[in-house]
Specification:
BirA Bifunctional Protein, domain 2, single chain, 11 strands, alpha/beta, 8-stranded mixed sheet, 3-stranded mixed sheet, about 25% helix
């Protein structure tokens, strides 16, 4: 299995093209599975369930329609995006189990920074309890599967510009906010986040070999 880390900011449309090529190659038996860690320029994406009214004010940022599941989300510098290209048939995983494992991956990563990331019934993603009934989202999940090979994946807010989330209703949820590691008082370098993502991956998915 390949782990790729891209320096700089990766164009969103190019990233989608690269993922689609890799998915086809994996399905054809010509490439290994891959986890691709990267950052995008500031932009919004609309998943297959996005509602037009949830785009409040793009503020000049580009908006891309994308084939992943979910609604509107923001990507930008300071957010670690992990695109995951796995062969679910080889791993004997169904889609629901796979999404649950992505959630577990984010939770296990946050635990390594002494944060309690949590699921919430009826809400996609991983949440931080801020007290007094307030939850803030710190990790997003949006996947697509083509012929049992996955792509798109997760994002974890490390130090993004949180004000950009005001341009959308993130994932269609109005009553809760968004946070990041830095917002929670943890000024952690991206390289350290990547290291812990890798360790947590091995913990959840069982190492580099298919299950």
């Amino acid at each position: 299995m390949e782990w790729r880390i891209s320096d700089g900011l990766v164009d969103y449309q190019q990233a989608v093209r690269d993922m689609e090529e890799r998915v086809a190659a994996i399905r054809a038996g010509g490439a290994e599975e891959m986890v691709w860690l990267l950052q995008h320029p500031a932009l919004y994406t609309a998943g297959t369930s996005a509602k037009a009214g949830d785009l409040l004010d793009a503020g000049g940022l580009p908006v891309y329609q994308t084939g992943r599941g979910g609604q509107y989300t923001y990507h930008g510098p300071g957010q670690r995006v992990a695109y995951v290209m796995l062969d679910l048939q080889a791993r004997k995983l169904d889609i629901r189990c796979y999404v649950a494992m992505l959630e577990d991956w984010l939770i296990a990563t946050l635990h390594r920074f002494n944060l309690n990331g949590e699921r919430r019934a009826g809400r996609i993603g991983i949440w931080i309890d801020r007290g007094q009934g307030k939850d803030d989202k710190i990790g997003a999940i949006g996947v697509r599967v083509r012929r049992w090979v996955t792509y798109h994946g997760i994002s974890l807010n490390v130090e993004p510009e949180l004000s950009h989330y005001a341009g959308i209703v993130p994932c269609g949820i109005k009553q809760h906010g968004v946070t990041s590691l830095v917002d929670l008082g943890l000024p952690i370098e991206m390289a350290e986040v990547d290291k812990q993502l890798r360790h947590a991956w091995d913990e959840v998915f069982g190492g580099p070999e298919p299950l």
